[in-house]
Amino acid sequence: MPDPAVDDFVQLLTPDGERVQHPDFSFDGSDDVVAGYLREMILARRFDNEATALQRKGELGLWPPALGQEAAQVGSVSATRLPDYVFPSYREHAIALHLGVDPVEMLSTFRGTAMVPWTANAEGLHLYSFVIGTQTLHAVGYAMGMQRDGLVGNADPAANGATIVYFGDGATSQGDVNEAFIFAASYTAPVVFFCQNNQYAISEPIALQSKIPLYRRASGFGFPGVRVDGNDVLAVQAVTAWALERARRGKGPTLIEAYTYRMGAHTTSDDPTKYRSRDETEQWRARDPISRVQAYLLGTGAIDQAWLDAVDAESEDLAVRVRQGAVALPEPRLEEFFDHTVIDPGEVLLEQRDDYLEYEAGFADHPDTDAETHAQVQEAF
């Protein structure tokens, strides 16, 4: 499994934790900033692993792990700032945490106790998109709105914004994604298309989807494409910062292909051992995005074992809060669903709601059977 050619692969930190130079991109942040990235990546992985364990215990209906993709997410979202707007798919957990989403609230969607309520607490974050590729069109439309609202190409850089939209390599085969490319190019929309190429569209390897590297597709639509080492948080931040700044200035879209690897399953309903080898996974494990940053920072003396122990303790506290919080999430009552269906529900829907409430109220005089009856009513409706 060779790496991409050096001339089309931006890397600033090797898997061994060595800083290297690139002719077009550089990372200018301090080691303290890099340590902040490492902390975010460690906490995101701990949260991700805990959510996977909760699903295995039957506490979540489904979970899409992001194991191995932490650098792609932390590095890219660290390049955003308001009024930028982020459009995730359904695997961008590190991004959601960075933008202020409470991890317990995030699990409500996957536990089935709420839709996506947690985005209300995260400024600049759109809700998760579970339909493959649709979020790319949403991001382009929002970006075109930013143009018309005067948030692009101003003399004051702080007044400018752009959108960034996340999707996987599998989504590039969807018509929505290609339509988004066309609209973005035609209108010079301020959008960064961020593809996390984790090598597999569920069980289908990228080689079966595309005969050329994904980033090269951008040239056919008339805008730049860049391939970056998606396991290198420094390179990802540098490339994304460049693409976002270009978009904010009114120069149009960019496609970033973050070349990474999904070390976990596609979702907890998936068994990746059926379609990829252990040797392949171990080769990529040697390129772990967290290990390389840790090796670099230990080498420079920016962190020590005490620092790592403190982050480990913080991550364990997070895991405990997630475990306890997930099972304590309040379960919704079905009458609440009617309130969130449409703005004007109409007589038919209200009659259905009233029939349900009347039926449930008929069991109010039987407290010993309330729990069982409520479960039966919930199932019936």
Structural class, please? Answer: alpha/beta
Tell me the strand percentage band.
Answer: 5-15%
Q: What is Rg?
A: 23 Å
What does the main sheet amount to?
A: 5 strands, parallel
Helices and strands, in N-to-C order? HHEHHHEHEEEHHEHEHHHHHH
What assembly state would you assign to the polypeptide chains in this entry? single chain
Label the overall shape. Answer: globular
Taking pLDDT < 50 over at least 5 consecutive residues as the criterion, the unreliable ranges are: none
The total strand number stands at: 7
Strand order within the widest beta sheet? 1-2-3-7-6
Distance between the termini: 51 Å
In DSSP terms (H or I, runs of 4 or more residues), the helix count works out at 15
Helical residue percent band = 40-55%
Average of the residue pLDDT scores: 91
Your description of this structure?
- Strand 6, helix 9 and strand 7 form a beta-alpha-beta unit.
- The relative contact order is 0.16.
- The chain is α/β, with parallel strands linked by helices and 381 residues long.
- Helices cover 46% and strands 8% of the residues.
